[in-house]
Amino acid sequence: MKTIPNILILLGVSLSGAVLGQTAKTDFDYTAIQPGSYDGTWWNRTPIRLIQTNFPAVYASMAVDDYVDALVDASANTVLFNTGGIVANYQTKLDFQYRNPHMGERDFVGELIEHVHEKDIKYIARFDFSKLHPSIADKHPEWLYVGTYGQNQTFNGLVSTCINGAYYQEHSLDILKEAIETYPLDGIFFNMMGYTGATYSGEYHGICQCGSCKRRFKESTGLDLPTSNDDSHISEYRRFQQETSRELYTKVTDFIKATNPNLIIYNYNDVGTSWIASESGGTPLRNGPEYIYNATNNVKQVLGSYKDVSPVNLTMGFLAIGYRNIMNNPNLLRGWMLENMLHGAPLGFVVVGTLNHYEDRVFLPKVKELYTFHKTHEPLFTNVQSVSNIALIQDRGGEDARGMIRLASEEHLMYDIINPSQIGGTRLPRQLEDYELVILNNVAMTDKELATAVSDYVKKGGKLLVLGSAVANGIEKGTGTFSLETLGVASVVDVFPKAQATYLKVSPTDQQLLSQSKEFSLMMMNARFLQCELTPGAKGYLRLLPTNLYGPAEVTWYEESQITQYPGVVYNDSGEGKTVFIPWDIGAEYEQRGNYAHRSLLLGTIKNLLSVDNTVETDMSPTIELTRLANRNGQFEWMGMINHSGFLGNSVREPITITNTSLKFKPLKPVKQVRLVNAETDVAFKEVDGWIECTIPRIADFEMLLCLYE
C-alpha cells in the first residue's frame, strides 16, 4: 500500500518507528455491545453475508462438504443457490421441470440444505422461470416467447418463455410449492421474472407476439398488440407491461407467503419482497470506466426509502456476461463491497461455479478478509441507521442521480436517498420533516403524494433545493398540489434546448452565492434549460447566454446584448421555508464533466443561499467516501471511510494510503471512547462545544471510527 509523503509525519516518527498520534493495537470485546434489534427479524438491518454461487449443472456431482466448508471459511452466513426452474437440482416430480442429469439419483439440494443449516447458514432457494430445456419447450409451444417474425428465442440450447403464458402464470407456482413443501428453506429468490429482452449476446427479437400476449393486450386495451417500438400504441404497451409484471409479482409473492409465511422473498423490486436485489457489475462487456459509486447508489436508495425492506446488493465477481469465468478488477470489486458494508447494508458476492473451483481467484482472499471483518464486528452492523441532514429525492438510474451522489461523496455531505415513489407513504424510515435540506433532483411532479409532501415540507419551514428541468413536467399536467410559485417562478416562457456554446453569465453580484473558486464570470451550461419569469420577491442569479459563435477563433465572441434576463438560479422565500431552483440539469452535467464551476454553484446554493452547513468538518481528500451511522439502541455511532484514490478511470489500482486527516462532528450522545476499528486502536479526542475533534492517522483501503456512548 502506498503512502503520501508528509514531512510532519516524518518528523513525528519515534525511535520505535511508531507514527505520531497512532497508538499500539488494543483488544476490544465487541460482543459486549448490545445493539438491539431493528424489528425482531433475522433479515432486516442485520449483518447478512451472502454468497451466491451461480451453479453450472455439471458441478452437481461434487462433494457437498467441500462446498459448505468453503462458505464457512469465507464467513458467509447466507447462501443463494440454484434450486429450480431452468434446472432442478433436486429430484423433482414435476414433468415440466428439467431434472439435472449430472446429479444422478442424489438429492443435491436436500444434502446442501442439511449441511448449511448445521453450520447456521441460511439457504435462499433461487428459481429462474425465464427459459426451458428444449425437451419441455417442444411439448408446450404455447408457453414460449414468439418474436416479431414468428420465431422462438433460443440461446445456448435454452428456449425463452413468456410471462403471459401458463408456465409463468400457473406452473411456476407448482414448482415453488413443491420446493417449499419439500425443504426447510429460509427464503426464495426468483430471477428475470419479466418480459423477454435481448439474449446474452445482445440480439433482440422484438415484442412478444405469442397468443397469450395478443389476447391479454386486446382484453386490457381493446387494441392490437404492437409489433415494434415505433408503433403508435407503444405507450399503452409499456403500461401493459408494467401492470402485468406487477400483477405476476404480486401473485407469486402472495402465493409464497400463503404457502410459508416465514420465508423471506428476495427480488429486484419492492412488490411483496423482504430483500430488494441489485447488482454492481455483471453487465455485458463494454468500454469505459465503471461507475465508482455503483453500490452506494444501489443500497442507499433502499435504505433511505424503506423501513421494512433491506437491500442486498450483489458484488458480481465476474468481468462481464461474456466473461463469466474470470474476475473483474479486484480493486473495483473491493470498493463496491466496502460501499455495501460501510453504508450498513448486507454483503453479497456472486461467483459462477463455487469458491473452490473458480479459476480466477485474485479477489477471493479479499472477500474472505472483508467477510471475516464483518463477522468479527457484527454488533456494529446491527440495528443501525444513517445520520444524515440531507434527503436526496431521485430515481436510481440516470446521470442526474449519479452526479449528485458524486458531488455529495466528494464533499463529504451526509445524505440519504429516497425513491420518489415512497414519498407520502408509510414505509419511509424517516419523514421529510426530519431533514434540514431536501433536494429534489430532476423529478417530475406527476405524483400527487410527492407534490403534497414537498409543498407541506416547505410551508412548515423546510429548505428545498430543486434541480433540473423535469419538475415542470408534472406541474404542466396539473397535480394541483405543487405550484411553480413555490419556487419563485411565475411561468415557464420557453425551454431552451441543449446546445453547445451555451453559458451562464456570472455577475459580480452573483459571486456571493458561489463556493470555493470564484475566478470566473462565465459558466458552461450544456443542458435543457427552463426560461422562467419570476414572481415578485424572488431573486434570480446568473443569466442565460444562448448559443453563440464558437469557431473559428477569429469569430468566437459574444455581445452583452445577447445575455438574457432568464436566471440559472432562483431563490425564493415560501411560507416559512426557503427554496432554490436550478432550472437546468446540473446533476447530469456534473456527472459528465465534474466541472469546478458547477461544484462551486451547487455547494454555494446549499451553504450561502439555504444556510445549510456540513454536519461533518474534515480535510479528507475528495477520494475518501465518508459515511455516518448510529445504533438505534443508543449504544454507538460510527463513521466509515472508503479510500477511492486508486480509481484511475479504466484502471483501478491499489488506493494510496491517506495520513493524518482531521475530523470534527457533533455526536448524537456524549462519547466515552473513540476507536479505529480496522486499525484496532483507540484514538485521542477532544470535545469542544459539543463537537468531537480527532485525527485519523492512517486510512488504507478503509477505516471505521467508532464512538461509544457514555
Automatic annotation (TrEMBL):
Coiled-coil residues: none
Keywords carried by this UniProt record: Hydrolase, Signal
Native organism: Parapedobacter koreensis
Gene Ontology molecular function: any one: hydrolase activity
Keyword Hydrolase annotated: yes
Gene3D superfamilies noted in UniProt: 3.40.50.880, Glycosidases
Protein name: Hypothetical glycosyl hydrolase 6
Signal peptide: 1-21
